[in-house]
Design goal:
The complex is a heterodimer of chains A (about 110) and B (about 110).
Chain A: E1 3-6, E2 11-14, E3 19-21, E4 23-26, E5 32-38, E6 44-50, E7 56-59, E8 62-65, E9 75-77, E10 86-93, E11 102-103, E12 107-112
Parallel strand pairs in A: 2-12
Antiparallel strand pairs in A: 1-4, 3-9, 5-6, 5-10, 7-8, 8-9, 10-11, 10-12
Chain B: E1 4-7, E2 10-13, E3 19-25, E4 31-38, E5 42-51, E6 54-57, E7 65-67, E8 73-78, E9 87-94, E10 103-104, E11 108-112
């Protein structure tokens, strides 16, 4: 079945450091890929998405590129802020006709001043 | 718009007690979902609904029942709570369209003693 594997945390970075959170997936067909963010005490919010190979999703300085050849969707940000401290989830939705998401286990990011 | 709301925010139950969690959305979404979030496990789908009057099992349905009598509401029931059901429960909804995101509620933290 479909699955998502993301790097285990927690990840602790200093403010203005470069962030990479790795995400790889296993799926048949042509899935859509998502990154969700969960701030402390809140529900999940969509951070960015990509719906086909080579698409780049971006939002709030975060980027991720859909790489079909390596089945990856790594999240990056050039300069993190304390306000980016949260749990980040990679997720996939199988091809057309499916409305279910499969989530990775989440990566907790802490950014220290 | 309130988006997705969940009631209650917190609840403590004793083993064997029953309760119902309410999810409501005001976005006229067709699909609704119930997830549970446990440390190190990511989000796991319990049940979902593709429309009023229809429900289906997800990855971890045992011990839960659901109902969707109105399009805007999705109820999750625990008939006889067990300590293994201690978790944070999230409701989500999405519109019936390709590549649409899921919108999440703020969560319900349930403790079963």
């Amino acid at each position: 079945g479909d699955s998502v594997t993301q790097m285990e945390g927690p990840v602790t970075l200093s403010e203005e450091a470069f962030l990479t959170i790795n995400c790889t997936y296993t799926a048949t067909g042509y899935p859509s890929l998502f990154w969700y963010v969960q701030y402390p005490g809140e529900g999940l919010q969509l951070l960015l998405k990509a719906t086909k190979a080579d698409d780049k999703g971006s939002n709030k300085g975060f980027e991720a590129t859909y790489r079909k050849e390596t089945t990856s969707f790594h999240l990056e940000k050039g300069s993190v802020q304390v306000s980016d401290s949260a749990v980040y989830f990679c997720a996939l939705r199988p091809g057309a006709g499916s409305y279910q998401l499969t989530f990775g286990k989440g990566t907790k990011l802490s950014v220290i001043p | 718009n309130a988006g997705v709301t969940q009631t209650p925010k917190f609840r403590v139950l004793k083993t064997g007690q029953s309760m119902t969690l309410l999810c409501a959305q005001d976005m006229n979404h067709e699909y609704m979902y119930w997830y549970r979030q446990d440390p190190g496990m990511g989000l796991r789908l319990i049940h979902y609904s593709v429309g009023e009057g229809t429900t289906a099992k997800g990855e971890v349905p045992d011990g839960y029942n659901v109902s969707r009598l109105k399009k805007q509401n999705f109820l999750l029931g625990l008939e006889s709570a067990a300590p293994s059901q201690t978790s944070v429960y999230f409701c989500a909804s999405t519109r019936l369209a390709v590549n649409n995101e899921q919108f999440f509620g703020p969560g319900t933290r349930l403790t079963v003693l």
